[in-house]
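Thread: Newbie trying to understand structure tokens

Hi all, I'm a second-year student working on a class project, and my supervisor (Dr. K.) asked me to get a predicted structure for one chain before our next meeting. I've only ever worked with sequences, so writing a 3D structure as a token string is new to me. If someone could post the tokens and maybe explain what I'm looking at, I'd be very grateful. Here's the chain:
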Amino acid sequence: MSIKIKHCTIEDLSLLQEISIETFNETFKDQNSPENMIAYLEKAFNLKKLENELSTIYSQFLFVYFNNEVAGYLKVNTQDAQLENMGEDAIEIERIYIRATFQKLGLGKFLINKAIEIAVEQKKNKIWLGVWEKNENGIAFYKNLGFVQAGTHSFYMGDEEQIDYIMIKLLSLSE
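---
Reply by user tm_fold:
Sure, no problem. This is what the structure looks like when written as tokens:
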């Protein structure tokens, strides 16, 4: 079993879009209307928006490879790239997207640990993320890794307002 990480670049834009649409659709299509899914996917993962995100100085995209196949990616944000103002000492995990055929292989935990490693390197003492209140598997996964709910924020799926739990993990800089 071989797991590797590679930073995404502008040359990876089409693959990034493909994985984003595929994984988001697989995960959430059964709980949302087709109209809201289409509206969200077109807005969140169009090439121009992803290109802008890739060129944001305070965001990083990392592909994870499992046995030399792209299995998914991690997106982390610091500074003003964070979706919520959590301060200078925080790093946000905006996305952990793992393709269905690569789930249950430890890649989510591997990417969380990679995000923690980035946070510690940047001397951040808190890591946070938003997870949909109806994503019970995700919530349980993050709790198991030491995240605690610290608030909520709105997330719009098309025209439907949904609630995300904000979950935070405090870090010691020696992790």
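A couple of things are worth pointing out once you decode it. Helices lie at 13-28, 34-44, 47-54, 107-121, 136-144. The beta strands are 3-7, 59-66, 69-77, 90-98, 126-132, 148-157, 160-170. Feel free to ask follow-ups in this thread.
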